[in-house]
Amino acid sequence: MIVLKFGGTSVANAQNIQKVIAIINQKATNHPLAVVVSALSGVTDMLINASKKAATKDESYQNNLEEIKQKHFDAIAELIDPSHQNQLLIRINSQINQLQTLLDGCFLLGELSPRTADAIAGFGELLSSQIIASALQQSLPNSTFKDSRELIKTNANFGKASVDFNTTNKRIGDYFSGIKSQVVVLPGFIASSENGNTTTLGRGGSDYTAAIIANGCNASSLEIWTDVNGMFTANPRIVKQAQPIETISYQEAMELSHFGAKVLYPPTIQPVLKANIPIWIKNTFEPEAFGTLISNQSETNINPIKGISHIDNIALLTLEGSGMVGVAGSSKRLFEVLSQHAINVIFITQASSEHSICIGILNADADKAKEAIDKTFELEIAQNKIDPCIVEKDLCIVALVGENMKNHQGLSGKMFSTLGKNNVNIRAIAQGASERNISVVINEKDVKKALNTLHERFFEDNTKQLNLFVMGVGNVGEKFIDQIHQQKKFLKENLKINVQVIALSNSRKMVFDEEGISLKDWKVLLEQGETANVNAFISKTKDLNLRNSIFVDITANYDVAAIYDQFLKQSIAVVTCNKIACSSQYENYKNLKSLSRKYNAPFLFETNVGAGLPIIDTLKHLIASGDKVNRINAVLSGSLNFIFNNFSDSYSFHDVVKEAGVQGFTEPDPKIDLSGVDVARKILILIRESGYTMEMEDIENRSFLPKECMDTTNNEDFFASLLKHANHFNALLAEARAKDSRLKFVASFDNGKASVGLQFIAKESPFYNLEGKDNIVEFYTDRYVDQPLIIKGAGAGAAVTASGIFADVIRIGNV
Ligand code: ADP
Ligand code: ASP
Ligand code: MG
């Protein structure tokens, strides 16, 4: 005998029931079967809802009833040949009338007793099982229906009755030994008390019914047919990368289901465990998929963690005070009072000082529990020996489960550090004595982030998903997105980094997609997005609360540079090519660096100096290894270098500056480059990264621009002034020629002083031959005394800047 159980979605409608019938037919050729079915999807909720409405004098329960009725009649009409419908319709109609009578009774009395509530809730299975049995008889005449209430006997604890296994096993054994039918269809979830009243086995209890039947008839296996390909490494609705577990031990499965893996109702394993009956979890909609085998053997693969599960809606109750220390029986009294009020304790931790005890229960029980506990410890509370019980709601338990965890060190450390890195605050910790699970209590708002990041850490071969929130999609931004698009596959396969762009914004529009914006059509998606708004962007990013979030600033905007602190404080990393923040007031720069340390959120700005050249990274390594920077000489403006390299008798200064803009070498406002401000910002950042305190005003800027050019307020006027002062620039060129030298805009730092300005560079200087838009930096340090450490290469341009930003993102991925 094999026992099959089909859940609510599997029997949701006629179309799905046909799939179920096909599976039963196929199995029945080899084995006798007992088939346990749930109510049609959603019907139990509708019944419970209707009964509550009726009891509160809300007449709309009639609508629920009508809907329930229609659902079942629709199924009958589609599944059963009209010539065979009669008998069934009479029975179903009569049962719906009984249901109506019960609901009307609740309405009239304005009351719902637990006994009536069970009688009503059980109708879903009663109706579905009869319809399925009749439908099955059309293709398998040798099949029959049996009411589980005649087999499964329980106590009268309505809502979640306890099974009397002696009587039940005997009844099941007797019934099945005498049965001639190849297939017996039975309703799940319902049973009956000694007095013959309908009882139920708890929400999700049809799994349990099937296990009870399997145990009673000593089945060779139990198959739970549902809507997913087995028991997954985490809830597949929350963790997209979760995978079905092929084999798992009874204990592990029990632990996972106890901690919230809804695919299996926790008590299900108990009856089959003793009889050593294997359980298969299979998918009705993909019967060929392997599924999960639960048995007394666990796969001893390399990963000691089998799965991660979680329970929502948890409240923590803490009882503490000196009155608990060394006083025997405090915990006993605490648990006794909870048990008296039928409050289920899901989680317990006790400080070894015995000074406090902390328990996790369902939110819904929290107020009742506090009242009862405070009453029990009334005397101690009045004497200030124990504090009134503290309640914290809206929490969630997350548990790592695995039989082999006990043989591995450091798993809890890994768990806590993974959560900590993502700013998930752990409220309480418990580790089962069996070491089959480690569970933590966290805020409900963090659960998705926690599950995904833990899943990545323990199951995805250390693949890390980086979630990018990008502001600014101009020249550089566009290249950056193209590069991610191109490299996505490579990064995933080779570096185990999965880069997703979650948000994009320009100055007009913004678009968010939690699953990742398609990088093929990001332009269209952005155009269709909502109106851009920096504050809305920040709060959406925070609310999404995704793991490994990175804010990427590819603007040159003051307002955007002012919001980094808000991200860092949420442990969201910041990558920026915008120099404004790092060259603003020293206090602000320092604050951002310390927020980055405090919240463990990288703050990277390699592209602030020398675009994609690894200048800041090199400097960081020098300093970290104990070197000290004494002097810096540098050409840091790719745009100025391009301009002075191309400026000639036949190519006017004005035209060269224009061209530099077209090629994306200048800032959007070219005056920032030509005035020397951009270079001053860069040397300032290098000086600060070298460990010195300096402000922008401390840098001497020997600008080569005439005052009138400096005073312009827009690009048009600026270019006009360049034309007007052509002679001034030509004279500079002539002087350079006369001195047999070249014009270079040089930044230097020496002896605590910094300056930027145009210099005539003689042939002997390494700066003389600096071509195109190249940058060069010379670091003179304690270790590089005579010969400086030189970094040289392309220092401007959209593609190299984008690749520098990309490199910062990858640095974060590699942490
Ligand atoms: P049924 O109606 O068939 O009894 P349930 O809804 O009770 O189905 O259970 C199946 C659902 O359990 C899945 O659709 C999935 O969303 C959820 N689930 C939660 N955790 C897990 C897990 N670890 N593995 C598989 N499914 C899970
Ligand atoms: N129909 C019941 C419920 O929804 C039992 C089950 O489906 O397992 O809780
Ligand atoms: Mg279920």
Structure overview:
Homotetramer. With 815 residues, the chain is of the alpha/beta class. It folds into four domains: 225 residues, Acetylglutamate kinase-like (Carbamate kinase), CATH 3.40.1160; 153 residues, VC0802-like; 144 residues, Rossmann fold (3-Layer(aba) Sandwich); 182 residues, 2-Layer Sandwich (Dihydrodipicolinate Reductase, domain 2), CATH 3.30.360. Helix content is 42%, strand content 21%. It has 30 helices and 30 strands. The strands form five sheets. Strands 3-5-2-1-8-10-11-9 form an eight-stranded mixed beta sheet, sandwiched between helices. It has a seven-stranded mixed beta sheet with strand order 21-20-19-18-22-23-24, sandwiched between helices. It is elongated. The two termini are 54 Å apart. Bound molecules: adenosine-5'-diphosphate, aspartic acid (ASP) and magnesium ion (MG).
Topology of helices and strands:
Blueprint: E1 2-6, H1 14-28, E2 33-37, H2 43-55, H3 61-79, H4 85-109, H5 114-121, H6 123-139, E3 143-145, E4 153-154, H7 165-178, E5 183-187, E6 190-193, E7 198-200, H8 206-216, E8 221-226, E9 247-249, H9 250-258, H10 269-275, E10 279-283, E11 292-295, E12 307-320, H11 330-340, E13 347-350, E14 356-362, H12 363-376, H13 378-382, E15 390-401, H14 411-421, E16 426-431, E17 437-443, H15 447-459, E18 464-471, H16 475-495, E19 497-505, E20 509-512, H17 522-527, E21 530-531, H18 534-544, E22 549-553, H19 558-561, H20 564-568, E23 573-576, H21 586-598, E24 603-604, H22 615-624, E25 629-635, H23 638-646, H24 653-662, H25 671-674, H26 677-689, E26 699-702, H27 707-710, H28 715-724, H29 726-738, E27 741-750, E28 753-762, E29 774-781, E30 789-794, H30 798-813
Parallel strand pairs: 1-2, 1-8, 2-5, 3-5, 4-6, 8-10, 9-11, 18-19, 18-22, 22-23, 23-24, 26-28
Antiparallel strand pairs: 6-7, 10-11, 12-14, 12-15, 13-14, 15-17, 16-17, 19-20, 20-21, 25-27, 25-29, 27-28, 29-30
Helix pairs in contact: 1-3, 1-6, 2-3, 2-4, 3-4, 3-6, 4-6, 7-8, 8-10, 11-12, 14-15, 16-30, 23-24, 24-28
The chain binds adenosine-5'-diphosphate, aspartic acid (ASP) and magnesium ion.
GO molecular function: aspartate kinase activity; ATP binding; homoserine dehydrogenase activity; metal ion binding; NADP binding
Organism: Flavobacterium aciduliphilum
GO biological process, one term: homoserine biosynthetic process
